[in-house]
Amino acid sequence: MYAVRANPDAMAIAAKYTAAIFLFWFFVLTTYRLFFHPLRNYPGPLFAKISDAYAGFFAVKMSLHLTTYSDLKKYVRHGPNKLVFNSATALRDIYNTEKTNKSRTYLLTIASGKPSVFSMLDKRNHRVRRKIMAQAVNDKAIRAFEPTMTEQIEIFIQQLLLSSRDSEPVNVTERCKWLGMDIVGHLAFGYALNLQTDPTNRFMIPGLAVSTYQFNSFMQWPLLKTLGLRHLLGITSTKDRLKYAKVLYHIIGNRLSEPVHAHNDLYSFVADHLENATDGIQTSELWSEAVFFFPAAGDTTTTAISALFFYLSRNPTAYKKLAKEIRGTFRQYEHIRGGQQLTGCRYLRACIDETLRISPPASGSLWREPYNDGAPVVIDGHVIPPGTQVGVSAYALHHNEEYFTKPFDFDPDRWLVQDEAALNLMHSAFAPFSLGPRGCAGKSMAYLEAGLVMAKTIWLFDFEIAPGKLGTVGEGVPGRDTTDLTWSSIYVPVGRPTPPEWTYRECDEISHRSLSRHIKQDHSLRNRQVVVTPMMVLERVV
Ligand code: HEM
């Protein structure tokens, strides 16, 4: 028998050689990326030219959209293989074409080993999947779903009404997130999550935020995922994420036990088309779609709505114009529904668009690559070498003065000017939903939801910035600080009669938690949103 012992000298030598090899490799790679790489002549921050850690660092800090905005004043190269552009021509060249494809970084978002409509790179497979998913969000499906959406919005309004009785500040961000999740529960799997009235499932909001945050960070800095560095950086809150996954599992399991057409939901459209997993829900295509669909449909729209509350509470002129339009258009609260009257509210649409411009819920660069068919790809006059990731940041382009004068001003009227050339110019650079074959499939649903929530709220209530410190939450220096929180005080407007059929469902928790708690919670959402309205005090108007 022999005991094998490590020789300390041999170990020291091995460590030295490993370090030397690593340093040599690092030196060669850095030299190549700086002086021989096909993108060497594009200006960029030094560290970005060398490593994806540059963008990764700011993604982890949740301020990448701001860094991109300021870097674009001088730079184009935003990673060893990444070019970011800031023009309407580039927007069209990159997204409104078949010559590019989603970048391979989207594969990092795959949750079950099977891609979703969002992460599918193969164009033919994507077209088929997109067609299936689109059935759940086309005009016919939206009309069928509207009553369910309205029911949830009514709960939102009733809860505001309860809070408005004592004119206490309300965290509008939180309320909007609960609403969004309740709507998407019904839309996806006909499931009543009841976040608005029951605190049990509210942990799903931070759970979802953690997942989104991770995916965002991985997509900028893939090494985080490959080497498990996320743990070192402490960006994983596994507890909430796992709890979230458990609920999603339960929701899907519950739906699978019902007949396919038991609800007017996404499942009823996709059930017959998605591959069944033999080894459980979490490896099925349905799981992948669900993991994508909840944040895509639930988080984005409500981020926009809460941001709109924020801007309106700080812009009295816009606020008054909108209130006048809504209260003048709908003689009775019950008349507020999807249709011509609502779409005819041009100022409302301008307010929503202005919010999506100034604070796009998907604010980062959505990376694309030249499609692998050898055809040259030209972006804004630049021939792009194969393997290069190209993108436009909606946040940066929406604040580009070439297209939008005073880009940090919230000015819905800019969308209503008579000057057709100016309007066309702005529209050419407006892309909150992206565009082309991979653009948002749920745009109409998002406008309906935002329109209904805003019209109903402003018909019935008045709101203003919360008093004291709460009212300052979310405010920051435009273009410098991430103004991602919004608290406003919603005061229910005075004198409007409550629709008689309303029964006030007592909310389990209308408690108003401490400011620090809200700050902490909303901090985790920062990556996705630039401004979200926190606390509002409501006042009944009607
Ligand atoms: C204000 C609200 C919304 C915004 C700003 C928004 C934005 C976007 C953006 C920018 C993309 C492209 C992502 C990328 O290229 O990586 C996208 C994709 C998508 N969105 Fe939305 N979205 C919103 C609401 C919705 C809603 C309500 C639904 C569904 C009901 C939805 C469903 C989808 C789907 C299915 C895709 C994937 C499209 C594909 O790859 O074929 N979105 N969205």
From TrEMBL:
InterPro entries: Cyt_P450, Cyt_P450_CS, Cyt_P450_E_grp-I, Cyt_P450_sf, Cytochrome_P450_monoxygenase. Pfam families: p450. One of its GO terms (molecular function) is oxidoreductase activity, acting on paired donors, with incorporation or reduction of molecular oxygen. The chain crosses the membrane at residues 12-35. Its cofactor is heme. Keywords: Heme, Iron, Membrane, Metal-binding, Monooxygenase, Oxidoreductase, Transmembrane, Transmembrane helix. It comes from the Eukaryota. Heme binds at C440. CDD domains: CYP67-like. PANTHER family: CYTOCHROME P450, CYTOCHROME P450 MONOOXYGENASE. Belongs to the cytochrome P450 family. This is Cytochrome P450. It comes from Xylaria grammica.
